[in-house]
């Protein structure tokens, strides 16, 4: 069943990666055997996946390398250039997509038309108060809120230092800061905290150019801008202050137009105190069910993250709150440690990386493929390495993001994430079922995830297609899982994530737009997950801003997120293509069976 089972077992038959490493270091004969086995294993993986499309003809490639498509890339250097492309898109009836950091693992960025990339310096500046209405100005003073305008092309890690210099901060952050301010919210990226909505709620005003070159500024009904002052200064921009429109304008999945600037709200800079607790999933799941959440031992904290060891019962809980001045004095700053840091430093991993000229994350992946018995230990140890007994305190962005934007480049992973309603403990039941599926995949197919199944939480968002969408008292739980990759065309991650998606859908999951998005997800999924009302309200806005479907792509057409709500599923043609590979007879058989 396993990968080079017999040869691998001759080298090591236990469950502990440190023991395997010791043998490798001390026993030259064994080390030699492993050095010979590793290139064979590498070659086998390549052969098993040799039908991948190849790189030569592909033009646009996302950060992880798993999304590739032919397109006309336009480097956008000025507003005039953006405006010209949007005019041309309608004249030539050519599709358009914009990207931010191009980090999404899903097909949300795909287009066969123009792909617009921002090429300019970042821009973050305090919003011009002259254009805001009186009520907003006085409320902002009372609540100590300061607004900033941020342009498309500005990454989160570029915004945070500017805010910090002014003693300002975002109310929450996700687990990475490499995303663009528009791209991060187009897919409803979130951090964690049951009272904190996803990050799209940072945005209070959206400026966008739609196909044909009309320009809009979209805000909630009680928006921040004073319409009369705005019209005087910008007569060519249409200001829309309407909740129905705004609720589609931030989490857009790139489908309304190209957003060139947003306004965000900020709060005074703050410190966070972080505690970590070790427990078992068996205990944690009963704690998670305790209501009300405002007194729940875990969920009452500002930020809660539950990391579950997928193949053992261990769980690591992160609990964060605003730090007091006393906390700052009493507790040390954290010592940032990467999840797999300890294993990556092992000579056996370093040597595989050298022998095959692949990154250390890839070397660890290959080792886990050869010695699957060590995976439960590796995953649990990785979690244990993050435990600290005493609380730590630091500025919020250093606690939430100790590695800033660095992670994705030197250590490739692909992730999937599901958002669950927490009603009737649905999220706990869903997590149980997913853990079962993970164990089944391990036992039957030797397929694994690496690291924890990581549970985070959010309050509701009013954006129609946010994974956190719901009425104001609803809360959501998210479960994310990662897989190491050294070559993205190795499709193990797809097989694991597709199976997990199947299980998650039984609990009415919403799949993260910007993480692995299974090809099985279609219009029926969309209607179940978000409800007909949200989907129709969103389509109304597509109809208004992009009646010709210029911003559409294959994924949106498959989901029915088009101006006329029509679904075009190319899946059946892909199925034909697959069969066709096996010869004309197969293809004829398929056709005659129709
Ligand atoms: C290392 C890593 C860590 C992550 N951590 C988290 C996390 O903690 N929490 C979480 O929820 N998610 C997380 N994600 C997911 C990530 O936040 C999303 O995939 C996000 O959308 C990526 O942002 P981006 O700027 O790269 O967007 P892109 O990939 O460039 O684009 C995403 C979408 O935005 C649209 N878009 C971009 N710019 C514009 C524009 N100007 N106008 C209109 N549409 C536009 C694109 O067309 C596309 O549909 C993580 C991803 C990675 C790679």
Automatic annotation (TrEMBL):
<dbReference type="GO" id="GO:0050660">
    <property type="term" value="F:flavin adenine dinucleotide binding"/>
</dbReference>
<dbReference type="GO" id="GO:0003885">
    <property type="term" value="F:D-arabinono-1,4-lactone oxidase activity"/>
</dbReference>
<dbReference type="InterPro" id="IPR016169">
    <property type="entry name" value="FAD-bd_PCMH_sub2"/>
</dbReference>
<protein>
    <recommendedName>
        <fullName>D-arabinono-1,4-lactone oxidase C-terminal domain-containing protein</fullName>
    </recommendedName>
</protein>
<dbReference type="InterPro" id="IPR007173">
    <property type="entry name" value="ALO_C"/>
</dbReference>
<dbReference type="InterPro" id="IPR010031">
    <property type="entry name" value="FAD_lactone_oxidase-like"/>
</dbReference>
<dbReference type="Pfam" id="PF04030">
    <property type="entry name" value="ALO"/>
</dbReference>
<keyword id="KW-0560">Oxidoreductase</keyword>
<dbReference type="InterPro" id="IPR036318">
    <property type="entry name" value="FAD-bd_PCMH-like_sf"/>
</dbReference>
<dbReference type="GO" id="GO:0016020">
    <property type="term" value="C:membrane"/>
</dbReference>
<feature type="domain" description="D-arabinono-1,4-lactone oxidase C-terminal">
    <location>
        <begin position="262"/>
        <end position="558"/>
    </location>
</feature>
